[in-house]
From TrEMBL:
Transmembrane segments: 35-59, 131-154
Naturally occurring in which organism (per UniProt): Oikopleura dioica (Tunicate)
Name assigned to this protein: ABC transmembrane type-1 domain-containing protein
InterPro entries: ABC1_TM_sf, Type_1_exporter
Protein topology in the membrane: Multi-pass membrane protein
PANTHER family: ABC TRANSPORTER B FAMILY, MYCOBACTIN IMPORT ATP-BINDING_PERMEASE PROTEIN IRTB
Source lineage: Eukaryota, Metazoa, Chordata, Tunicata, Appendicularia
SUPFAM superfamilies, sorted: ABC transporter transmembrane region
Amino acid sequence: MTKKEKTSKKKKDEKEPVKKVPYFKLYRFASKADWLLIAFGWLSAIIVGVSQPAMVIFFGNSVNDFTSAGKFQACFPGDAEALIKFANQTGSADDISDYCLLTLSTLTDREKDLFAGGSGASTSGTMMDNIWWFIGIGVIVWLAGWIQTATLMYSADRQVNFLRATYFS
C-alpha cells in the first residue's frame, strides 16, 4: 500500500464532526407568545425544583417533633406535672435517673414551651402545622407542575406546527 493510499483511506475513515446547534437556536421558530409560554413553563419548573428542599425542611421539623414528644416517656410516663416542675427548675432531681437528668438538662426553650405548655403548644398542634405545610406545598407543586407541562407542551406544539407549515409550503 502506498503512502497516498494510506492517507486517502484515513480520510475516508474519519468522520466529519457533527455540527452543534446553540441552545437558543432551537427556539428560532418561537413567536413572542411562545416565549411567554416558555417563560411561564421555566418559572413553574423552578417552583417545582425549589419545593424539594422545602419538603426536606418540613420533614426534618416533623422528625424533630416526634423525637421531642417521645424523649420524656421513659422519665415521666404520664406525669406531666413532674416534667413541668423540672423543666422550670423548681422540682428536685432525687427520683430521676441519670438518663432523664441528661435529657432534661438539654431542653431547648421550644421544648420547654412545648412540654410545659408555656405557649399552649402541643405535639399534635406542631405536627398539624407541619402537615398543613406539606399539603400546601403539595398543592403548589401539583399546580406548578401542571402549568409547566401544559405551557411547554403547548409552545412546542405551536412551534412544530409553524415549522411544518413553513417546510411544506
